[in-house]
Amino acid sequence: MRMRLSLRSLTNLVDPHHSRSVHIPFPTAVQQLADFIRDADGRLVVLTGAGVSTDSNIPDYRGPQGTYTLNPEYQPVFYQAFRDSNAARHRYWARSFLGFPPVVRAKPNPTHYGIAALQTGNISLQDGTAKAAASLAVESPSLRPPPSPVRGNAASAAAAAAAAAARRRHVQSLITQNVDGLHQKAGAHDVIELHGSLHRVHCMKCGHKEDRAEFQHVLAGLNPEWDQLAKELSAGQLSSRMNADGDVQLDHKHDHQADGGDDGKGDNQERPRVAAQDSSSSASTRNSLDYRYFKYPNCRQCGVGHYKPSVVYFGENIPPATKERATDAVRDASALLVMGTSLATYSAYRLVAQAKEQGIPIAMVNLGATRGDPMANLVLDESSSAIMKAVCVELGLGSIPGEIRPLQRILNVVGS
Questions:
Q1: Which of 45, 120, 176, 182 has the fewest beta carbons under 10 Å from its own?
Q2: Is 206 annotated as contributing to ligand binding?
Q3: What is the pTM of this model?
């Protein structure tokens, strides 16, 4: 006999100061999360962080393979430095030029597919540009194809299928801190991108927007040697490590460089040069590329402004419209599910605090402790991909596509 926990009973039964050292058996965790989702009555808001994209080979910041874990000296890009420093822009665009292709190639994992299925009521097997186009069509009614005429039994079957899908829709809004676009690739729509997107750039002076993939072609034309280096990285001829914000570090056994300053001064400072070695030769470097001479264009609309990726840098404010959308989504929710984030940034933490103040139930799914654990009604120390795959089966959505990497349970390292 199965006992079902309602959101009301869950609030009373689960200790908000629950310790992650007490591990909940996986089948129990699946059942509890499935019941949490059911009881939201289609008004669930999901908030995701970098931890949900690690199974897509995009690193988080604080996990066991995270950017800060592998490189404690890592310095993220600050808005003021990017805006004011020509050297900072050269350095960023050189690294981003090498780091963007892996983001484009990344595929959604079961967490992305599962959340999309919970939002749409259907499992999508599509991926890549075809799915992105379909997602745009959902967001823009003018892009939708006209409905094909149906008659008789076909019409009844279509209506029944639509009704069944509606019953399987559990997610009302999706908010993500991620900038990789994988939720949209998996078929999710109306995604609130709290920290922007790597797939767009804009002029800091006039606001003109460009597609990041098209901008990559422009950068390649201006920097043919770097373009060759990017191709060798893609072919696996050189080693690299991608960071969570879409750039890379190059590992070279003769000339490893830390992620430090731009001036090249001092023994512990980064020299603004990438020494790349062809894997077929261990004796000499194929080429030496200098960050300072990486070329990037001015805005082609105003002619003077500098392009910036449309992501929220450290030291930069979230656009008011985005902040308002996220606040409204939580305000209209009956429950909040948080996945793959330690809530280290206030922009995400405040949404959990808002949900707590509203008195709606909160569930946390993350490998490692989070700032939101004391406010949560349900805390699960699980891989988001593994539990989402099982939960979708439990909710009658069927088998979710995507790969699950071997579980790396962590104790003292907080997930991103």
A1: 120
A2: yes
A3: 0.76
